[in-house]
Amino acid sequence: MAINKVKGTYDVLPTESYLWKALEDKIRSTLKVYNIKEIRTPIMEYSEVFHRQSELSDMVTKETYDFDDRGDRKLTLRPEGTAGVIRAYVENKLYATQELEKVYYIGPNFRYERPQKGRYRQFYQFGVEAIGAVDPALDAEMIILAYDFIKRLGLKGVRVRINSLGDDESRKFYQQALIDHFTPHESTLCEDCKARLSKNPLRILDCKVDQKHPAIKEAPIPQDFLNEFSKTYFQEVLEHLNASKIDYEIAHKLVRGLDYYSHTVFEIEADIEGFGAQNVLGGGGRYQKLVSELGGPDLGGIGFACGMERLLLALEAENVQLAKDTDLDAFVIAFGNEVKTTATKILYELRKADIIADMNYTQKAFKGQLKQALRLNAKFLIILGEEEFKRGVVGIKNTKTEVQEEVLISKIKKYLLEKLEKK
Ligand code: HAM
User: Fold this and answer.
1) CA separation (Å) from 45 to 37, 340, 415?
2) pTM (2 d.p.)
3) How far, in Å, is the centroid of ligand 1 from the Cα of 364?
């Protein structure tokens, strides 16, 4: 019996992989302009990189793929990129050589979620982290970068939703306010939220069971609990966004789904046909404790990540074509075994000259071979029959103009380079 793919995963087939490549190219070319270099960290980490005492989000407590390896080490497939990047930043002491380290990453993550359109158990993110500085201008830069990237993709109605959770002190005030607010409603909260009430009341706002609960709707908002420093910090971030004319709105209830955030949190959305609430393409925020929690110095950072499947779905829904699949320059149609050796040689010559070329290996008849050539959108057909072979020539047909010319085998490369206007 054939074996199916794991639930929540998908195959990228050869007919669609060029779209992934085009998206990756766009990411890399954008990040180059922002002078940000790539970092590649492992997909698996020691579990404690993600399972930290302070991290009680669903993503980390309920959705990780944890396993013991054959040496009884506790490992976790990364559910997100940030913690692994910070582990690498600390382990490689990047803070010692660079005051501010800015990096980007592209790669798969794993979360045991309920699969649906735009939500998978293995999914790709591209993300950026700027570690080592606390400066509203840096928060703004990360937001502008995320916004700019989505705009560069050609999506419409790109907006930033932004909020501030404030510093430690502000968060403590806010947490107490949430405890005071939710305690009278405790009996009506879901089982998870009852437990969250004392340990991590912020997570109640993120409840996946009952988002319509009146107490959640009426909950206090972080902005009312920001101390002076946090208020000024947030104000300055907004001033930078104003100066750059970024389209943003303050989302008073935005707290995001991870516990490491303080100060700025944000999400990027766009108007996408038929997407509804799945129009959040990426999100991120500032983290002040993560570096020290992972054994590094007391340094803060800020970053964001975008779901790449979601980006591709958005591009498809909006009919934005980032790239076309590569068409063939030439397709060799050859008959007879004797001729085939020459066909192999011709192909090698053409490919050495970067002419994208192929031939048929399964069909013997002209008709079958032609069909394949046309399906592959070949610009030129190189027709090599017994009779042509004897005379040392081929017929080269332009599939668009239908003009066919006879060309010496030794001159095929030159002929095609001229016609294709390749040097
Ligand atoms: P996150 O909001 O958990 O943040 O994920 C970022 C993005 O990844 C989401 O906005 C969404 O587009 C995509 N995503 C998340 N889960 C899935 C899934 N199951 N299937 C498909 N796409 C998904 C983070 O991961 C943080 N590390 C972002 C960050 C970076 N914060 C600071 N630096």
Assistant:
1) 22, 51, 55
2) 0.94
3) 51
